[in-house]
Design goal:
Layout lengths: L2 H14 L3 H4 L11 H4 L6 H17 L16 E9 L2 E6 L3 E6 L14 E7 L2 E6 L1 H5 L16 E7 L2 E7 L1 E9 H5 L9 E7 L2 E6 L1 H11 L2
Parallel strand pairs: 2-10, 5-7
Antiparallel strand pairs: 1-2, 1-8, 3-6, 4-5, 6-7, 9-10
Keywords: Cytoplasm
Protein name: Chemotaxis protein CheW
Subcellular location: Cytoplasm
Amino acid sequence: MSGSAFYNVTHDDTQAIDDCWNRIGVHGDKSCPLLAEHIHCRNCSVYSAAATRLLDRYALRQDDRDLAYAPVDADIVTRSLLMFRLGEEWLGLTTRSLVEVAPLQPIHSLPHQRSRALLGVANVRGALVACLSLVDLLGLEPGSAAPSGGRVMPRMLIVGAQGGPVMMPVDEVDGIHAIDERILANASQSTGKYTRGVLQYKGRNLRWLDEEQLLSAVSRSLS
């Protein structure tokens, strides 16, 4: 989805939090008297408190907001999957759960992390967004495989979780592919966490993620 769609998702959250870092901090006119002491807004307790309020809101709103995607039409012939890489493993996630693929952003850790998977928060166009480790959520081994050729750019996946958008860094994004439902139906069973199955696609073993289970795990990590 476009940047305007991301704005619609985050607009209410941004309005509710005093984003002083965008007005008088490092992203504003730098007139904040605390900058001399903290050097950067991410080192300030005000920034950390805003991030904590954001995470509190994820937990409070989980029961009040529907997942940010529509049901799948059972009669469709193909299904769109975003193919991406974590370490040496290629994974597929249905695009209905995807808000945006964004450039890699600096992640600012929080003094009191709520879960092992929570990496911290990132500032995306003025909005604080929680960042989670998909490697930890899926129980994968960390590390980045050598690229097969060409320039590889790590990306951030922004997905529509209950309570608001969440970012997850990945090592590489291959793109969106329309995959025949018959191929998906014949995917082999997998014992991997939050996985519907494993299929052969374009010469790769593609792990097809169960987005409902995955987004439920994301919500639990933010509670």
